[in-house]
Design a protein that fits this description.
Chain lengths: 439, 439
């Protein structure tokens, strides 16, 4: 019986390739950078309504959100930035699932570096191009196609499927946190971020830090009378490299096998000094610290604080001028789902079935909203989606269209396994059979 | 006879302490930062006219200046910024001298860091405070007092004394270059920059450089897929440190004995990366390369260019991504006067005589307009003045007032030795004796 259902679902997805491509193109053509998500979200809401889902649209805000310990945002409010949730209500007695995707995309950057307009949605050789097409509108469309396949095939599930199109993932997850606080919970979650169809039961968390390294100014002609904050910052960078090495030596989980550095410490920005002829007295380093799913944000922060304190033993300058560490800006919580979790099993089995190979199971090198779902919502999340992160955040971002449909098929079949089938109706949702109608 | 003259000169300076302090205070109270030199220069011109000198005031400009190989300036023109020259014409048959001081001062910087207003000219415990008081209005007043002592004492010299109050020294020397091109030449020059009464027969030149270090961007979570321009820039900084070491090993002149690094390479500024979570793909280093009086600007530039090319042997990354070097902004030519030069001898002898100790003779760790006088004008220059560079360019800049008068006395007596005495007139310049009148 289930095999027959799965054949129907994959058949539907296969038959609606053009429809799916159009949908993705429309979504990509909506510039949904931070603060501009409204039009894209309206489009998503229309699609959900078209599927007869219960649709909930709201502007995140309020004290419960802003005072939540996991809340982080540079925005004062989310005026005009809407969250959209559509619920495919189950018939009862089954396990529920959250399908979570973010609508926000990072800025397009320098237009000149794009071959086509960043929001063109141009299709060339089986790939669609555009900002956000891989991160993560392709994944979102895979979710929508999976749900629509269920609806159109007249398959009623036992458990609820809660689709979430959230804002702010790229800036710390306030959208997903708001959805949790609005009461949306489920037994597990799937997040189709661009894993290149790998399955990520663990996600690396991360957070930003800033380190102020002091020097002492002097004229460049007698630079030996000063202390160069640039030279001292080199010692700090070196010291952080050793912390990274030490932290990563402790990680033995085979899920990180393919990651040269499972939880890297990246120095992304440096800025110091203000005059070529002066010895610089201050350098600011900004970076991202990876957080393993086996530790908390607090533990990682404490470790770095203690590590930097050891600089005093390396150079007496740091005894009197300890670098100042601050945590600022974005933060993504690490997340994980047990390897033997039922959702993992369904996902892997369907992957094998439909793709024909064993899935690659790894830990993700970046955070997703899955960390928030796990930590703040108690909802274990797995990350699996089309697209590759190599393309995310860069000019000429693209997605292999085939992968969108493959992901949609795998996810649709996984929903069937996880939520359980209550009823089927060959005629699909357009049937007038009152027994199959949605209430 | 000369001993008697010198006694008169020092007596005059001694007797006019209050007058000199007032003069310095008035000058300091005129904010003469770049573009605002006019009021201070008018004051200087009035003083020169009061001494019955031939006064020449002009706005530097024209193609001869801007096309000169030693011209460097970020300004498009010098509108409103005047050069002032006053000539104390000799009676003939003597050696001439240029007394060169700059009127421009560097910006006051953060007002909050000053105990008093930056242009207060406040006097506390024998020190006067204010932006430019040590760099170099104190030196300029020493020159004016030296000349006035001669005039008021009725001493007529054989050689010309050409006093120059120039603009733009802090920005590459366009003011002094303009004075050279206007035809002002002499057998030697004295520049009373703040040497703390040391005598600097050699002056370090310097120039600014910028180095672009490339990396390859990647997401910070997989930073090992990228190449950090920050890490590569650390190799460049280290490599430059070795160039500095090598260059300074070659300097054996005892004049540099007290300089830990005779011609330093200072990295004053660093800037790179634009996102904490990204691997930075570009770092820009800006610095100042010291140029020894034994080499030319061109030679030093070529040495650095060749040195950077060797980075390819240290790290293959630089083979495909060589750092890009550019010379920009300010530049000060090195300068020198032979140790046995007559002006040096007079200066040292008068120093011993009046201060009572052997003068400290060193090479300066910074450039002055003396480099231009030597290179573009063929005029050997010695630097000797009150004030210390530790104070220059910093908040609460001050000068020991005693040193201004000591410098004035030494310089006045040196002028007598160098230019030679033509006539004396006890009654001073106010005498009606036509024989002693200035024509």
């Amino acid at each position: 019986m289930t095999e027959q259902i799965k054949k129907e679902l994959t058949g539907w997805v296969h038959a609606h390739r053009e429809y799916g491509i159009n949908l993705l193109q429309q979504l990509v053509q909506q510039d949904s950078t931070q603060g501009n998500e409204q039009d894209a979200q309206r489009l998503v809401a229309d699609i959900l309504r078209g599927m007869d889902l219960e649709v909930d649209i709201w502007e995140p805000g309020g004290e419960e959100l802003s005072r939540h310990p996991d809340f982080i945002s540079a925005r004062e409010n989310f005026k005009g930035s809407l969250n959209v949730v559509g619920v495919l209500k189950g018939q009862g007695g089954g396990r529920s699932v959250i399908l979570n995707g973010h609508i926000d995309v990072v800025p397009a950057g320098d237009r000149e570096q794009w071959a086509n307009h960043p929001f063109s949605g141009a299709i060339i050789g089986g790939r669609m191009y555009g900002r956000g097409v891989t991160d993560m509108k392709g994944g979102n469309v895979a979710l929508l196609l999976a749900m629509e396949a269920l609806q159109e095939s007249g398959i009623r599930l036992k458990g609820d499927v809660i689709f979430q199109s959230v804002i702010e993932e790229e800036s710390g997850g306030a959208g997903t946190l708001a959805a949790i606080l609005r009461g949306y919970r489920a037994d597990a979650a799937i997040i189709p971020e661009p894993t290149n169809l790998k399955i990520f039961p663990k996600q690396q968390g991360s957070m930003w830090f800033r380190i102020h390294v002091r020097g002492r100014s002097a004229h460049g002609g007698t630079r030996y009378e000063g202390v160069s904050a640039i030279e001292k910052s080199m010692l700090v960078v070196e010291h952080l490299r050793k912390l990274e090495e030490m932290r990563n030596k402790q990680i033995t989980d085979p899920l990180y096998e393919n990651a040269l550095i499972p939880v890297p410490i990246n120095i992304g920005k440096i800025e110091g000094g203000d005059w070529p002829s002066s010895v610089p007295d201050l350098v600011k380093l900004e970076g991202r610290m990876g957080v393993s799913p086996e530790e908390t944000i607090d533990e990682a922060q404490t470790e770095m604080t203690r590590w930097l304190a050891q600089l005093a033993a390396i150079d007496p300058w740091f005894k009197t001028h300890p670098p100042r560490l601050e945590w600022f800006g974005a933060r993504w919580l690490p997340g994980s789902i047990p390897l033997g979790h039922g959702l993992m099993n369904s996902l892997c089995a369907n992957f094998r079935d439909l793709i024909g190979t064993d899935p690659v199971i790894e830990a993700s090198p970046w955070g997703t909203d899955g960390g928030l779902l796990t930590t703040a919502g108690g909802i274990p999340a797995v990350v699996f989606g089309p697209g590759t992160t190599e393309m995310a955040h860069f000019p000429d971002e693209y997605i292999e269209l085939d992968h969108v449909f493959k992901a949609a098929e795998v996810i649709a079949c996984t929903l069937v396994d996880w939520c359980g089938v209550a009823q089927t109706n060959k005629a699909g949702r357009k049937s007038d059979d009152p027994e199959n109608a949605i209430h």
